[in-house]
């Protein structure tokens, strides 16, 4: 079963609780995009918001850190109630140490790669993570177009998982909508993050069903 993770980046921040409630049925994670204005050219959410939305839903909070020096903030996001914390390989010269730090906080660790970063960069860490997030756009903003060349990386991660019996989930993020979801699922994606394709639609339940219908046949 493919999982859906609505990204609240495209939600109305003046009423986040209501927005989360509007997508809660039939989805699996709530995806939270944390940006620092350094690693990516945008500033969004910090631990205070994660703490504020934690009691709103029972769904796991899938926290995607697009920040420099993530090791300085992992404890705060863990304390705020994150269930999964993913860090960018490009932001972590000591990636193994940060992944261990996340695990030691009792949170599931994930690793993220940008469109231009090859899978080989993260091969040594694949046995230690619960999630591998393949960026299918350049991180920083919602509503961008899907980059097709990322599909082969999803396939590679799917192959490696089978070959070595790894148990990470393969997640994709960026430009995921009814037109692109099937290619991701066919390549081996197991969790689909979708921001604008869900929150920019008035009927969120219909939007979620449209994405699911695109690959469930
Ligand atoms: C992009 C973020 C995504 C973003 C996706 O930097 O990591 O999670 O919210 O937005 P859409 O689905 O609109 O491309
Ligand atoms: Zn994201």
Structure write-up:
- There is one protein chain.
- By secondary structure, the chain is of the alpha/beta class.
- It has a single domain, classed as Aldolase class I (TIM Barrel, Alpha-Beta Barrel), CATH 3.20.20.70.
- Helices cover 33% and strands 19% of the residues.
- The protein contains eight helices and eight strands.
- It has helices spanning 16-23, 47-53, 74-80, 95-104, 151-164, 178-187, 196-199, 204-215, and strands spanning 3-6, 30-35, 61-66, 84-88, 108-113, 131-135, 169-173, 191-194.
- It has an eight-stranded parallel β-sheet.
- Helix 5 links the parallel strand 6 and strand 7 (169-173).
- Helix 2 (47-53) packs parallel to helix 3 and helix 6 crosses helix 8.
- The radius of gyration is 16 Å and the shape is globular.
- The protein binds D-xylitol-5-phosphate and zinc ion.
- Residues 7, 31, 33, 64, 173, 193 line the site of zinc ion.
Helix/strand layout:
Blueprint: E1 3-6, H1 16-23, E2 30-35, H2 47-53, E3 61-66, H3 74-80, E4 84-88, H4 95-104, E5 108-113, E6 131-135, H5 151-164, E7 169-173, H6 178-187, E8 191-194, H7 196-199, H8 204-215
Parallel strand pairs: 1-8, 2-3, 3-4, 4-5, 5-6, 6-7, 7-8
Helix pairs in contact: 2-3, 6-8
The structure holds D-xylitol-5-phosphate (DX5) and zinc ion.
Zinc ion binds at residues 7, 31, 33, 64, 173, 193.
